Amino acid sequence: xxxxxxxxxxxxxxxxxxxxxxxxxxxxxxxxxxxxxxxxxxxxxxxxxxxxxxxxxxxxxxxxxxxxxxxxxxxxxxxxxxxxxxxxxxxxx
Length: 93
Hints:
Layout: H1 2-20, E1 23-28, H2 35-46, H3 50-63, E2 65-71, H4 73-85, E3 89-92
Helix pairs in contact: 2-3, 2-4
Organism: Candidatus Ornithobacterium hominis
InterPro entries: ClpS_core, Ribosomal_bL12_C/ClpS-like
Keywords: Hydrolase, Protease
């Protein structure tokens, strides 16, 4: 029984950990912002490296949206606000 209890506890911890990571910032395409502005914003706000920011910008351009950051809501809220303040279209889901 002790093994089952430990196993069950580990599963509960895994579920709690993954629930914290379920939130994502979605960045949407617009006709206003330049690629350079989007890339610079992703580097500064979401801590992307240059290649990652460029790839996200291309995905947004061609697909209309891209998940640019995942994590806890508490971490994503100020990041999403910063993207919005920079004139980008984003939301947390």
